[in-house]
Amino acid sequence: MAEDFEPKIVGFLCNWCSYAGADLCGVSRYQYPTNIRVVRVMCSTRISPHMVLRILREGADGVILGGCHIGDCHYISGNYYTERRFEMMEKMIELAGLEPERIRLEWVSASEGERFSKVVSDFVSQIKKLGPSPVRNKPEVAKKLEGAENASKSFRMKALVSKEYNLLTKENVYEEMLDPERLRNLIEQAANDEYERSLILTLTQDKSLSVKDLSKIIDVPTDRVLEHIVALRQKNLIAMEHPDGFTPTYHAIIIGGE
Amino acid sequence: MAEGKPVGSVMVVGGGVSGIQSALDLADSGYKVYLVDRRPSIGGTMAQLDKTFPTNDCSMCILAPKLVACGRHHNIELITNAEVSIVDGDAGNFRVTLKKKALMVNPDKCTGCGTCAQKCPVEVADEYNEATKKRKAIYVQYAQAVPLVYGIDQEACIGCGICMNECRAGSIEYDQVETIVEINAGSIILSPGFDEFDPTLKPEYGYGRFKNVVSSIEFERQLSATGPYFGTVLRPSDGDIPKKIAFIQCVGSRDKKIGNEYCSSVCCMYSIKEAIIAKEHTAGVEPAIFYMDMRAFGKQFEEYYNKAKGEQGIRFIRSRVASVSEDPKTKDLILKYVEKEEPKEEVFNMVVLAVGFRPPMSSSALSKVLKFNLNTDGFCDTKIFSPVDTTRAGIYVSGAYSAPKDIPMTVAEASGAAARAGSVISKSRGTMVTPKEFPPEKDISAEEPRIGVFVCHCGINIGGVVDVPAVTEYAKTLPNVKFATNNLYTCSQDTQEKIKEIVEEHKLNRVLVASCTPRTHEPLFQNTIREAGLNPYLFEMANIRDQCSWIHMHEPEKATEKAKDLIRMSVAKAALLEPLEKLEIPVNPSALVIGGGIAGMTAALELARQDFQVYLVEKEKELGGMLKLLHFMPEKGTDPQQMLKKLVSEVEANQKIKIFKGTTVMNIDGYVGNFKTKLGSGDEFEHGVVIVASGAMEHKPREFLYGHDDKVMTLLEFEQKLAKGDVKGDNFVFIQCVGSRSEEYPNCSRVCCTSTMTNAIKIMEKNPSANVYVLYRDIRTYGFREKWYLEAADKGVKFIRFADGDKPKVEHHDGKITVHVKEDDTDTTFLFHPDNLILASGTRCNPDNETIGPMLKVPLTKDGFYLETHMKLRPVDFATEGVFLAGTAHGPKFVDESISQALGAVARAITILSKDMLEAEGIVAVVDEDICDGCGICQPICEYKAIEIGPHPKDPEKKFAVINIGLCKGCGACVGACPAGALSQKGFTDDQIVAMIDAALEEEVK
């Protein structure tokens, strides 16, 4: 890896703990590399997964999220939701073929100035080890990230991830505790589905593709591609082009949406 | 009481968490507050703590927002570095003379940049860090200090003149002298806190002689990330990490020899906390706590203790350590102690002395100047039924100054003292405060963005690293930027004037300051642009100091590039800023108080005194609650029944209190300022706040033959008999912790030990030949209640300690009761045939909580008590705004504590009731009605219950999310969760955040 690679990193810090910790780090003059650009939010839970995926799609080499330590959230429970969402982000990034280590979630308190500098330094060297984001010279990775971004914006994913924490910690509408394993599998499956479906939509925006074409590009068995196409057609998101031969092709319907 | 109208201001002496809370409550209720501290900054002891029990919250994280709120509140005047020297006048109008030491720094000019301290050549011990590290002769106490003004320690300063040369703001003034400040205050609150016991007075522990013996507060600083060792515990002798750490409890507490008989109340818990944190910081550390009784009596403390004993693997040794000696070679420490009657010796690498509380050094001078009484231990004297009143009218007290206590009790009391201090002067509410007037806001809706950028040098703090002129030139090239300049100090008073002129001259409609952190400086600049006729939300900040120049001091070029990026990001957001309106919600100035016990009646009466209408609802036919059953108090000469009678008649005679007896609350609708309640009796009324004071009940035991033999009774049942003189026989046995500290009910019921003492003493007084035995696990007579334990023992009450899990056995033979108990220390089994077997039965929640809680949208603990917003700093508040909590509904507590909390709830309620209109947050969430389909996912995520799913305005068949602006706190949780993208957060919209992201990643064209 080139020695002079300077990663571009975007950070989201919550106003009350991690941003305050970053301020204290400055007050105490702990030095860290210049690669991070910080966006302040009131609470880490404000950050939607699609924002993080967008940052990566636009070529950033890493994204770091900072919140209050668990139990310390200024808004009582925001960081619990962040924790759940972060898992989804990692999953989506992995699906898109990027290293999940390109994103990191850290709890930094308002008194952990020195720790903030260590966290950033450590993250920067981790990203340096991973090397520049492949997005810059591999357009297909950008496409995949776009798919992931759209998947994470989908109603289904946002709904599941937003419900996850409450379903794990409280009784559901039947006054039963859901099996965490079951919920995890369900969310994992949904993430896979939504990602692959979004990707199919992204790929078929510019040109019509067949099930086999899609299978090859996204590396998913043909039968599953077809299942996705069925689901997408039900929602009127994709249309079939009548084939000359025996292989129909599909294109995304741009107008409308979920 | 002074003649004429009282003065509408209060002086608060002592700016720790107690004084801060009192000041904020009063300032939010229309009074002017003078907050006086003898130190240069406010914050007190809490600012020194690393973590707080039992939640292990970071102390600074939760305190700092209150510090900042105090510093910027326009009704609070901070008078630091000052001491009270003369007080004349009376309640309603005190004339106070303060002596303010010279800082040698002009606070109006000092920007808190810290260059002076970096260059100052004189190093001295840093008091904030308990001398575990050094500070300079010119200093601030700590990084987050409020006010953030440097000052010269005149004892240390050598007068070299370097700081004056370094200070670009010209704030150093060597010719300053002590000044006299005179103020008028209608009432006074004392919250000077406490001093730590000086451990050199216990020479047997070697403090001061052995380097590795430290005090608990020094250890606390060691644990802190801002402490001398950045959070890793190290041995002062050699810098090794100590593996074995011994904590010695009761150093300077419960110690007749040194003259402090009282218990310091908090040391058991803070030692457990320190042990847990030390272990968290370095795995493999082996803490051991040497104690006499483990006093984990507070809300959920016992669970914390159990966890420490269990999964955290901390050793607890019940023994008073006899002596500590040092191995001169290794500097290890040898502890000699007796456990279970067997002498033992053990080597530790470090020893922490859990030092107790002493009255503050200023105590006797304060009591002379302000003419109030101290108790025999030198703390401020208070009474059970007036826990925040001093012996002098118009002067109130809160926090550790009246008795050693923890933070939540201190904060509740601080609010309570604020209620009492406000009571004296409520007729003059609003007379000493002047709302700030601003010019009318310009309508910019039709204008294109015109952004002005102000880049700050911050002396050399930014300018010394970042190329400020180059950054300014760069800013001029950015889209929508119509003006850019740089200033030596953008926060200085003259720059504010300049900004206003430039906004006018260049017709700017958005302002960006690139300087320090918005956390401290945003409100200042927002005020400035309001004065220039712009909505305060048309302001944005780029943090190019704390998060750029200061952390990239050795990379000026990269720092300059980063500063440009940060400004580009902020410009992108600024272009999308919109004026935000702070909606106003009307307030109905009346209160619903649920529960007519001591807490409810106290709250009702105090609210009525301050002229607010009260609706008091009591389920029973008579007022009084549990107090009706209490006859003996841990206070000489206090008859609770007499106090109760007086209180009930006062409440019933008060015109402002409408009492509903024998009925319950059926339904509560609405939100802060505008509640509507329906009672079982059919009565309906509207009110602005709710105080929940619905109490608790005594546990009815299912063991020890209770219910099977008349000789067996609960403590409360016995107290009734004893009061009536209806007690037979000479043999009494008390069993403690019945239904408390058990697997089924893990927590301690707090009051039973002391009640046992008052009853046992009463038995001995009536019948000196009685045989009274108390069978216990730990005696938890915390604070001054310890004296009742000592008195019981003096009067001949015998105490037998049994082991946890080895409960006494009670049997029935031929009409006799037999009690078997094994004394843990000696392994001796004792046998009794008591005429009275008294079960110190614990407290249980009021079962009504389960129905009232959901009506108010407030949560309960596992034990069914109400759960406050924050265990430490918001002990009487609920997350649902406008709803407050007091008394045993919150958890078991004593009468004085219930009264303090009730008064505290009143002060918190008055911060709402005293306003005609409440101002809502500006950065609230909003719903796009066209997109929202009412899926309801956002609703449970909102901790503040600000979202309800209601019928759609355009199509009643459909549903959509309705945000109650009055309740929204602007965290954005719902926005992040909304699957439809229908929600957005003002000031942090998706578009604004995405614009920043895109700008961050934009490849620069240079």
Structure in words:
The complex is a heterodimer of chains A (258) and B (1006). With 258 residues, chain A is α/β, with parallel strands linked by helices. Chain A has helices at 18-27, 49-57, 78-95, 113-130, 139-153, 155-169, 180-203, 211-218, 222-234; strands spanning 9-14, 36-41, 62-67, 103-107, 209-210, 238-241, 249-252. Chain A has two domains: 9-132, Rossmann fold, CATH 3.40.50; 139-252, Winged helix-like DNA-binding domain superfamily/Winged helix DNA-binding domain (Arc Repressor Mutant, subunit A), CATH 1.10.10. In chain A, strands 2-1-3-4 form a four-stranded parallel sheet, sandwiched between helices. Chain A has a three-stranded antiparallel sheet with strand order 5-7-6. Chain A is flat, with a radius of gyration of 20 Å. Chain A starts with 8 loop residues before the first strand and ends in a 6-residue tail after the last strand. The mean pLDDT of chain B is 94. The chains are: A alpha/beta (258), B alpha/beta (1006).
Q: Could you list some keywords that capture this structure?
A:
heterodimer, A: 258 residues, alpha/beta, Rossmann fold, Arc Repressor Mutant, subunit A, 2 domains, 4-stranded parallel sheet, 3-stranded antiparallel sheet, 13% strand, flat, B: 1006 residues, FAD/NAD(P)-binding domain, Alpha-Beta Plaits, 7 domains, 5-stranded parallel sheet, 24 helices, globular
